[in-house]
Amino acid sequence: MNIRYDNRPIGIFDSGLGGLTIARAVQEELPGESVIYLGDTARVPYGDKSVDAIMSYAHDDVQFMLSKGVKLIVAACNTVSAVALESLHRDFPDAAIIGVIESGVKAALSTGARSIAVIGTRATINSDAYRRELHRQDHSLKVDSIACPLLVPLAEEGLTAGAVLNGVFDFYLKQYQAAPPDALLLGCTHYPLFRNALNEYFGGKVHLIDSAKACALAVREYLTENQKTAQPDNTPYHRYFVSDLAAEFNEHATRFLGKLPARVEKTVL
Amino acid sequence: MNIRYDNRPIGIFDSGLGGLTIARAVQEELPGESVIYLGDTARVPYGDKSVDAIMSYAHDDVQFMLSKGVKLIVAACNTVSAVALESLHRDFPDAAIIGVIESGVKAALSTGARSIAVIGTRATINSDAYRRELHRQDHSLKVDSIACPLLVPLAEEGLTAGAVLNGVFDFYLKQYQAAPPDALLLGCTHYPLFRNALNEYFGGKVHLIDSAKACALAVREYLTENQKTAQPDNTPYHRYFVSDLAAEFNEHATRFLGKLPARVEKTVL
What we know:
Two copies of one chain form a homodimer.
Chain A: E1 10-14, H1 20-29, E2 35-39, H2 51-67, E3 72-75, H3 78-83, H4 85-91, E4 97-98, H5 101-109, E5 115-120, H6 122-127, H7 129-137, E6 142-147, H8 151-156, H9 163-178, E7 183-187, H10 195-201, E8 207-210, H11 211-225, E9 238-242, H12 249-257, E10 264-266
Parallel strand pairs in A: 1-2, 1-3, 2-9, 3-4, 5-6, 5-7, 7-8, 9-10
């Protein structure tokens, strides 16, 4: 048997630092793999920009990753995955690029859920990408899509529990609290931070689908199927790039990655 | 007597659409003046970016205004006024550029307030620009500065009253509700939308200083002192530029300008 390996890094990009939740999940699931992370913090957030702007920024992000010689690119940004993935596949036909939507949908369906609520930024929800993918898999599913633009700023403010958060949950989700869906798909990289609070809000009655974990499993599947996993004795390295280094970087990075990156490098996109 | 006039437009720029509150105030106070508005919506918000990034973006904004032949440039963005105004004055020594901080401070002091609380974005508050200007005018003032990063997303979500807003007020301002300052300086172009709610929150006991109105008066003063007002029979025109045109433009523009702009033009910065 002739197994091939590929020690090149995995590229993970997001509009900001939220995608570090996916970098973390990938590092936990695939501890032998190197990761290059890019946060386009100079132009964050993408979620309320136009489709044209999002596509243009996503192209810059992919170009950056290609310049770093990655073997696989993960669009860790739900907004990019929702509105720009097709255009990326068209314009970079030789690059392996995966988004977070397909894997999130797969994870939601694996629970056996018949009714699924999707929450995300306005751009993600407006794109209708999650609902389309869910219905492509099973057109008889009951799907609700709810834009929750306040959740990202709440996460960045560290308000992942308490009265303000519950007020915001009531604002967006009150009607679902009374009649919960089978599964709630967290369609934004920031939302895993609300996992406990959402569990409590829905009295533990809803399957919470975390796109970070699901995406890491999709990465593993891609690498295995394509014989691109790193050699078992590979010593992985991780590099973190941002397009703007703001004062709160350490605080935010720690929140999403679960630790402080050893080093962060500033780059121009 | 030999009065000179200047029919060139006034340039007003902001990171996004919040500065339309200032365009509106200028148009109301100076109905004979033409206004060119620029919202850098491709890179909004500035408030949580680095000082370097904010200075670089502000330079682009000023270059754009100079290319339009304006007679005066208003940095309607508190963040820019707080961290980039000196650098703009240095790099564009021939341009007349005013920010919103000096006029806001002047308006606050004109109430006779002895204790003043300033609220704004994280970048504005971290810059300490309001406190420094207040203490430059009167070092015996009691000044508190409170970063309220959730208020901008709340305004953009249209939550300018109600339980969620009150929860956020409690989160940031609870201690001031019990012992209100004499004046509350609204250090962000979005905050005039909270005027009624803040008035209620403080039981009408606090002077609310609206930077939009104060800035319009500073514009009038500059034009009068420099004999640059438009001729009395001038027919003004208004042009609105954005660097990204998102789906919610009409809704947001109407909220801040009080009406829908007749036409909006997209520009590259």
